[in-house]
């Protein structure tokens, strides 16, 4: 019988077997930490059981029932306590050092997976939701694989070890104590059925809250100009209220479930205490034996209770795994070594037709055009005509339903693929600078660029103003180039693209923030570069007049 059916889990997109297989794959990179945690846990079990024996022996020695030296007996207790402290410190060290490494490694793997997946410009999920999954869900999965599973092994070992020890002291009570535990574990399957649904709701609304927060911070300038800060705060509060409501429901259910379990385990402990007291009153059990008796009962019930508590952990990791697996749904792009063609390169489109959805109709229909090597082309068209779609086709983010796109030079001609992206550089509209210094931004174009190369790129892009800044190339830019004007940021972005030194350059309204004089000088500099095929997506007449060719894209009605 499948685990989902056994626990009465609701139907989901992924089967339990699929999720377990995925968790096993993820676990491969975290086995060292899991192994160390398991070893420390088992050593802790051994030390804990030895502590029970040491306490019993010390009490019996002190009461004169057993011959021995009280100081030696207490010394052994102290040694065991110190060993327990050492194991606890080791566990904390492993968790904080290896744990963060495991979490970082998994986040890197997912980010790398997202960067290499197919993308058509339409995001399925809000960036806040993705960040929430990469942070909280990754942490949940890593903790489960590296800590919860080893902990479960230790709990089971403690349960069995304490049972064997207690059985050697009192057969009947050991059997009764163990026999009661499965009842509470079986009752907890009702917990699973509802808890998984509640946990999923909490995680989804937590992602929505983070998405709203991210948008408010990212667009705070726009919000201030629209004077809608109150409305946005209300929107945040509304989303948070839904989150709080789900958390309250989950907490209420968890409290009552834990209360039921605690009542059961407390009743079992009181029963054991009564049984030990009766035996002690009949002189069939020493005081030290009674102490060990109760400690062992606690060490049996404690693991049983902890095993019951693993059920919500399983529910949480099940939800987290599903949310992370959803990030892997997008297929990967064609993988392989980049295919670099010798300069100059051109692009040839033959009868290209593309549509996003069959219900929306064609965005581009039967388009043929040759961006010949070394040419400059202005791409014109009204809003919604398909200029952005054309860019995505040229970068192989999208693939035409009909026709084909070729990249060629004087020696070869190849069908365009993601592997040819190394021949392109793209400068989008607006400010696309990263947080960091101007030098660091320029290094994104060419990692090992020299100061001379940077100077030449800044000259061509009319960005010599950088050297007039107090810190020059070391000037720090805030998020999205904060501290610089839009025009200044655009010119630095163009300089960054020049350092990439690719054959085909695509500028998408990249001069929209420049004054006419600076724009004219920049265009002349760009067009003077030899062996470059340049595409300008523009609405500006001045840009079109400087180009060799004009491609007009008409909106399909």
Strand order of the largest sheet: 6-9-10-3-11
Briefly note the CATH topology name of the largest domain.
ABC transporter transmembrane region fold
CATH superfamily of the largest domain: ABC transporter type 1, transmembrane domain
Q: Please tell me how large the radius of gyration is.
A: 34 Å
Number of helices: 16
- In percent, how helical is the residue content? 55-70%
Strand-and-helix sequence, N→C? HHHHHHHHHHEEEHEEEEHHEHEHEHE
Major sheet description: 5 strands, parallel
Large-scale geometry: elongated
**Which CATH first-tier class of the largest domain would you pick?**
Mainly Alpha
Give the helices and strands, then pairings.
Layout: H1 3-6, H2 16-27, H3 31-62, H4 70-115, H5 127-169, H6 171-187, H7 189-218, H8 220-226, H9 229-281, H10 287-326, E1 346-354, E2 364-371, E3 376-380, H11 387-394, E4 402-408, E5 413-415, E6 424-427, E7 436-437, H12 438-443, H13 451-460, E8 476-477, H14 486-500, E9 504-508, H15 516-527, E10 533-537, H16 541-545, E11 549-552
Parallel strand pairs: 3-10, 3-11, 6-9, 9-10
Antiparallel strand pairs: 1-2, 1-4, 4-5, 7-8
Helix pairs in contact: 3-4, 3-5, 3-10, 4-5, 5-6, 5-7, 5-10, 6-9, 6-10, 7-9, 7-10, 9-10, 13-14
Descriptive report:
This protein is an alpha/beta fold and 557 residues long. It has 2 domains: 15-326, ABC transporter type 1, transmembrane domain (ABC transporter transmembrane region fold), CATH 1.20.1560; 346-552, Rossmann fold (3-Layer(aba) Sandwich), CATH 3.40.50.300. It has 16 helices and 11 strands. The chain has helices at residues 3-6, 16-27, 31-62, 70-115, 127-169, 171-187, 189-218, 220-226, 229-281, 287-326, 387-394, 438-443, 451-460, 486-500, 516-527, 541-545, and strands at 346-354, 364-371, 376-380, 402-408, 413-415, 424-427, 436-437, 476-477, 504-508, 533-537, 549-552. It starts with a helix and ends in a 5-residue tail after the last strand.
């Amino acid at each position: 019988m499948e685990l989902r059916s056994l626990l009465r889990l609701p139907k989901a997109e992924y089967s339990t077997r699929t999720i377990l297989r995925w968790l096993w794959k993820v676990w491969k990179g975290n086995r060292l930490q899991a192994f160390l945690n398991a070893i420390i846990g088992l050593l802790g079990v051994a030390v804990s059981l030895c502590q029970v024996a040491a306490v019993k022996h010390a009490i019996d020695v002190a009461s004169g029932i057993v011959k021995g030296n009280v100081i030696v007996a207490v010394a052994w207790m102290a040694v065991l306590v110190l060993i327990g402290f050492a194991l606890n410190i080791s566990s904390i060290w492993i968790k904080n050092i290896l744990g963060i490494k495991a979490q970082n490694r998994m986040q890197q793997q997912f980010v790398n997976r997202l960067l290499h997946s197919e993308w058509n410009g339409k995001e399925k999920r809000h960036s806040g939701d993705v960040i929430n999954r990469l942070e909280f869900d990754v942490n949940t999965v890593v903790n489960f694989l590296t800590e919860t599973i080893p902990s479960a092994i230790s709990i089971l070992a403690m349960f069995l070890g304490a049972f064997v020890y207690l059985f050697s002291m009192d057969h009947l009570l050991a059997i009764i104590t163990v026999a009661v535990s499965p009842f509470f574990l079986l009752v907890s399957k009702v917990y699973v059925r509802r808890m998984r649904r509640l946990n999923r709701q909490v995680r989804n609304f937590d992602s929505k809250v983070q998405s709203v927060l991210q948008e408010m911070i990212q667009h705070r300038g726009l919000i201030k100009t629209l004077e809608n800060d109150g409305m946005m705060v209300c929107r945040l509060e509304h989303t948070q209220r839904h989150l709080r409501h789900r958390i309250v429901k989950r907490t209420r259910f968890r409290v009552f479930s834990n209360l039921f379990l605690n009542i059961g385990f407390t009743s079992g402990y009181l029963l054991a205490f009564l049984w030990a007291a009766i035996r002690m009153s009949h002189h069939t059990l020493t005081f030290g034996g009674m102490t060990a008796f109760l400690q062992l009962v606690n060490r049996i019930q404690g693991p049983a209770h902890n095993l019951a508590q693993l059920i919500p952990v399983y529910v949480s990791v099940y939800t987290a795994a599903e949310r992370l697996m959803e990030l892997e749904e997008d297929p990967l792009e064609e993988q392989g070594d980049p295919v670099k063609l010798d300069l100059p390169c051109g692009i040839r489109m033959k009868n290209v037709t593309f549509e996003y959805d069959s219900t929306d109709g064609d965005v581009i229909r039967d388009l043929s055009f040759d961006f010949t090597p070394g040419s400059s082309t202005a791409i014109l068209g009204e809003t919604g005509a398909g200029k952005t779609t054309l860019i995505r086709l040229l970068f192989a983010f999208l693939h035409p339903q009909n026709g084909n796109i070729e990249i060629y030079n004087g020696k070869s001609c190849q069908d365009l693929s993601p592997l040819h992206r190394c021949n392109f550089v793209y400068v989008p509209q607006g400010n696309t600078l990263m947080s960091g210094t101007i030098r660091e931004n320029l290094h994104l174009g060419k990692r090992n660029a020299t100061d001379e190369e940077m100077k030449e790129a800044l000259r061509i892009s009319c960005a010599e103003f950088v050297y007039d800044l107090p810190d020059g190339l070391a000037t720090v830019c805030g998020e999205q180039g904060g501290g610089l004007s839009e025009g200044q940021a655009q010119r630095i972005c163009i300089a960054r693209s020049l350092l990439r030194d690719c054959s085909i350059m695509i500028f998408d309204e990249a001069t929209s923030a420049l004054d006419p004089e600076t724009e004219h000088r920049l265009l002349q500099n760009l067009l003077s570069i030899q062996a470059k095929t340049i595409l300008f997506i523009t609405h500006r007449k001045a840009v079109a007049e400087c180009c060799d060719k004009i491609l007009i894209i008409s909106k399909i009605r």
